[in-house]
């Protein structure tokens, strides 16, 4: 017949009570007499009590007070002249004594886990005089333990991690259960551990509570978390023992046991030839079932005809390979590129090399798409010259542009009038010949910088720009001018031959070797013999001077 927890406790109480009663003769106080000694002509016997320890069963469930033991003094002749009293811990409130017989009873249910023993003092008094007939004696009532506390996991529930692919027997975590029962008495506090849920993946050491792996090659990518239920049972796991449970959540942590693999052996992307340098062409990714550092990649272009045109880098957040342009694309020069790209793990674990190789290859083909580009001039800058004496309609020079696309659309030319506000020049829309549209004056503007536009006939929105610098050549079309208006004064006592004024002339023209001026007096002034003019032969530039002398 199986006993439940309550029935089992009652059985233990009855057994303990029997043991207590059977040992009462040893528990009763014994006295020892010392040799008699004499004082004042009288003989007096000295008495003393020696008390043994009392035991009382905890968790007594009966309705009557629980008998603990008996106090007795050999002075007591049984005639009612002696009374017994208790003092100390629990006296009167928990423990009572029959003052006539010395019988001690417990009036309340006791719990060893709350208090394991009580220290009390006993005394026998003369009932008439109320004086002690024996010296006061101290004794202990110890609470006898029963198995009334189940093991408890004070730190549960637990969480732990263990690397995937760990060998059998790898320690995961240690669980610990405590039992409030008396560890020094019987097996009430002796705990053993077992696993109720989590097999066959994990096991637990019965005595230590250390959880270990029980299967090899557990794969995080297949299942990354396990819920274990661990039981702790007292009474060394025997039937009738009390038990407690806790849960342990075990997470498999990642190791680099999965090599990167491209989902496809080849990729193809189309990009317009007008895509700017540094633009992203494509993003590719090698799949890796690992996580964190174990999934970190590096990509590189190992072969192909686009090594100098494209480059590949890694996005640290997504582990994608980013292909970007390094040089401008030109559909007319090359219509496609082929790249051989490798992806490799950055952190390879030597323990799992047999699962590799930890790199993979794929082919990326990039198709360059034609874009309707604007016309291109044969030169970035045209330099032309024309004389300022040129007549209207004089041909200055020719510019040329062409459509770089395969269609080679015809081109029409025009002048950006924002760069030729006075409309000095014209251009033939078909031939690109630039001519003069009005008279030119070098002294007004020596160089004209104009912008020529070239538009596709089929798509006028496609406009190319060319730049023309037209230098105006000088002719001698400006007469010399005096540098200023002269007004000269002379003293009446001036000496003959004395210089009284220097005069200068300027010329707006710009001959390469400088101006040659000649100075002379007008016919009217030449008849005045008081003054003469000395010509300096124009050796001063740009102001060429002569001197007026007084004679």
UniProtKB/TrEMBL annotation:
PROSITE patterns: CADHERIN_1, CADHERIN_2. Keywords: Calcium, Cell adhesion, Cell membrane, Glycoprotein, Membrane, Metal-binding, Repeat, Signal, Transmembrane, Transmembrane helix. GO terms for molecular function: beta-catenin binding; cadherin binding; calcium ion binding. Its main location: membrane. It is found in: Cell membrane. GO terms for biological process: adherens junction organization; calcium-dependent cell-cell adhesion via plasma membrane cell adhesion molecules; cell migration; cell morphogenesis; cell-cell adhesion mediated by cadherin; cell-cell junction assembly; homophilic cell adhesion via plasma membrane adhesion molecules. It is a single-pass type I membrane protein. Residues 73-153, 154-262, 263-377, 378-482, 482-541 form the Cadherin domain. Residues 1-27 form the signal peptide. Gene3D superfamilies: Cadherins. One of its GO terms (cellular component) is catenin complex. PANTHER family: CADHERIN-23, CADHERIN-7. This is Cadherin 7. It comes from Anas zonorhyncha (Eastern spot-billed duck). The lineage of its organism: Eukaryota, Metazoa, Chordata, Craniata, Vertebrata.
């Amino acid at each position: 017949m199986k006993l439940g927890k309550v029935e089992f406790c009652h059985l233990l109480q009855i057994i303990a009570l029997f043991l207590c009663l059977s040992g009462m003769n040893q528990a009763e106080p014994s006295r020892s007499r010392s040799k008699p000694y004499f004082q004042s002509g009288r003989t007096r016997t000295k008495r003393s009590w020696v008390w043994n320890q009392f035991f009382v069963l905890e968790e007594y469930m009966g309705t009557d007070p629980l008998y603990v033991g008996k106090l007795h003094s050999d002075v007591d002749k049984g005639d009612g002249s002696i009374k017994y009293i208790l003092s100390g811990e629990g006296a009167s409130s928990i423990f009572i004594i029959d003052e006539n017989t010395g019988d001690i009873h417990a009036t309340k249910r006791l719990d060893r886990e709350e208090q394991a023993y009580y220290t009390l003092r006993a005394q026998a008094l003369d009932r008439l005089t109320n004086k002690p007939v024996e010296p006061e004696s101290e004794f202990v009532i110890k609470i006898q333990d029963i198995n009334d506390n189940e093991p408890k996991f004070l730190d549960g529930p637990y969480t732990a991690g263990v690397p995937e692919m760990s060998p059998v027997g790898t320690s995961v975590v240690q669980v610990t259960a405590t039992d409030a029962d008396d560890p020094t008495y019987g097996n009430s506090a002796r705990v053993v551990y077992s696993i109720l849920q989590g097999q066959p993946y994990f096991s637990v050491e019965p005595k230590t509570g250390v959880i270990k792996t029980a299967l090899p090659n557990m794969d995080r990518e297949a299942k990354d978390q396990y819920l274990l239920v661990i039981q702790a049972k007292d009474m060394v796991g025997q039937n009738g023992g009390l038990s407690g449970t806790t849960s342990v959540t075990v997470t498999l942590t990642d190791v680099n046991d999965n090599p990167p693999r491209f989902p496809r052996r080849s990729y193809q992307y189309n990009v317009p030839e007008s895509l700017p340098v540094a633009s992203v062409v494509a993003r590719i990714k090698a799949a890796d079932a690992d996580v964190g550092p174990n999934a970190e990649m590096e990509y590189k272009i190992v072969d192909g005809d686009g090594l100098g045109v494209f480059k590949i880098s890694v996005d640290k957040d997504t582990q994608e390979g980013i292909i970007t342009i390094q040089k401008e694309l030109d559909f007319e020069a090359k219509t496609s590129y082929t790249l051989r790209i490798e992806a490799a793990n950055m952190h390879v674990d030597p323990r799992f090399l047999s699962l590799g190789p930890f790199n993979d290859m794929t082919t990326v083909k990039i198709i360059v798409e034609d874009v309707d580009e604007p016309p291109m001039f044969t030169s970035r800058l045209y330099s032309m010259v024309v004389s300022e004496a040129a007549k209207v309609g004089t041909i200055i020079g020719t510019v040329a542009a062409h459509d770089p696309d395969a269609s080679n659309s015809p081109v029409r030319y025009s002048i950006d009038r924002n760069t030729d506000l006075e409309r000095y020049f014209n251009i033939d829309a078909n031939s690109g010949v630039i001519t003069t549209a009005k008279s030119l004056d070098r002294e007004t503007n020596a160089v004209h910088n104009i912008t020529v536009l070239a538009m596709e006939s089929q798509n006028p929105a496609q406009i190319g720009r060319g730049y023309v610098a037209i230098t105006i050549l000088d002719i001698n079309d400006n007469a010399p001018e005096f540098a200023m208006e002269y007004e000269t004064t002379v003293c009446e006592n001036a000496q003959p031959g004395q210089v009284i004024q220097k005069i200068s002339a300027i010329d707006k023209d710009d001959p390469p070797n400088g101006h040659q001026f000649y100075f002379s007096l007008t016919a009217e002034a030449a008849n005045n013999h008081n003054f003469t003019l000395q010509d300096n032969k124009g050796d001063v530039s740009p102001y060429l001077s002569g001197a007026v002398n007084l004679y």
